[in-house]
Specification:
Subcellular location: Nucleus
Region (Disordered): 96-116
Radius of gyration: 31 Å
Helix content: 55-70%
Organism: Hyphodiscus hymeniophilus
Mean pLDDT: 76
CATH topology of the largest domain: Helix Hairpins
GO biological process, one term: regulation of transcription by RNA polymerase II
GO molecular function, one term: transcription coregulator activity
Strand content: under 5%
Strand order of the largest sheet: 1-2
Number of domains: 2
């Protein structure tokens, strides 16, 4: 995983959004590899009685699969921790502080407290939503569908009433 750039005066330049997204994509791929390694280890264990392969070969293959699993798990854990630290630095999430903190990054109980503004730190969700007309368009489309269904129901009810009356003439009660 790339590290932030250090300038000549010793200060750090934070990752760009594109770099963060690339890092998350790499973590996603690593999780896929993690699942493959776990599946391979389970497959080797399940195939124990079905194959005539020597026990030593199966044991070696299982150890290789578990080593791959553990190393990938470590890299995923490290990558996710880095992403959390980046979110903390950007004050998008706020670390919960406790007195008996054993782990300085997770607040002792392994949980992070969401920011004061509804879990989004300094992001204003209303502002973000107003920049995208998608929410309004989706709501409008939903209302048009409901209105169409309602009007079709009214129209169907009128047709049924006309059929019940026959030719449309009303009797005068004579």
């Amino acid at each position: 995983m790339p590290s932030p750039i250090t300038t000549q005066d010793g200060s750090f330049v934070a990752f760009t959004k594109a770099e963060r997204i690339r890092q998350l994509n790499d973590i996603d791929k690593s999780i896929t590899q993690l699942l493959k390694s776990a599946g391979l280890a389970l497959q080797i264990l399940a195939a124990e009685q079905k194959t005539n392969e020597p026990v030593a070969d199966r044991k070696q293959a299982f150890e290789k699969a578990t080593d791959s699993y553990l190393s990938t798990l470590h890299s995923v854990d490290l990558g996710l921790r880095r992403q959390l630290w980046g979110l903390e630095e950007a004050e998008i999430i706020i670390e919960k502080k406790t007195k008996d903190s054993h782990d300085s990054r997770s607040g002792g109980d392994g949980k992070l407290e969401k920011g004061l503004e509804g879990g989004t730190g300094k992001l204003d969700i209303g502002w973000l939503n107003s920049r995208s007309g998608k929410v309004g368009r989706d709501n409008e489309a939903e209302l048009w569908v409901k209105a169409k269904i309602f009007l079709e129901g009214v129209n169907e009810k009128l047709r049924e009433d006309e059929k019940a009356d026959g030719d449309g003439d009303q009797t005068m009660g004579i």
